[in-house]
Amino acid sequence: MNYAGEVAALVTAISWSMSSLAFEKASLIAGSLQVNLIRLLLASLVFFVVFLFSPITPEGIPDFKQTIWLAASGLCGLVAGDYLLFKAYTVIGARTAMVIMTLVPLITAIISFFWLNETLNAYQIVGIIVTLLGIFIVITGKRNKHKQSQQYISIKGVLLACGGACGTAFGMVMSKYSMGSLSAITSNHIRVFTGFIGFLALITLLGRINNTFSVIKNPG
User: How far apart are alpha carbons 85 and 81 in whole angstroms?
Assistant: First the structure.
């Protein structure tokens, strides 16, 4: 059996977990909006370079409908979802927020069931139940007295993380629905670039663009 998909998902989960700790610290120092804008700008540049050296076939060129759906996926998952998640980092910390983010597969499965007519087998349902029990234990357990006051389990932080999970899940389903024969590089490039434009517009509307330049000039 080919487990390439499972291995890719596992590597993604490990990378995501490691990066969340760095993003927590960066968000506390610079602010979640600024951190998201900078990371998506860097990611977009990396995808652009990779895209230039990747072979492109006629089937790999997105049409208008695919572009719109992938852009919507970027706005939903990378702007709304990640903004809420990064805000949750500053309230309940990356470790607790990432535990709550394990709701993403469950929410994705529910959305896919109604949207893409996908079903779950018994093993997957058991996995979801175990995940829900783990999240329940973390949220309702006694807080560690040695933790900083900003990092306790709060309703606000839990709601922010849950909102981030919903945004990420909707973004993932939109991506799967729209990408078709497109490569992962092309699809993610569209999503990431749209996410960057979304955060740039949001920061500009909120009048925080000067703060972003200050962060870049003085990262410490």
Answer: 6
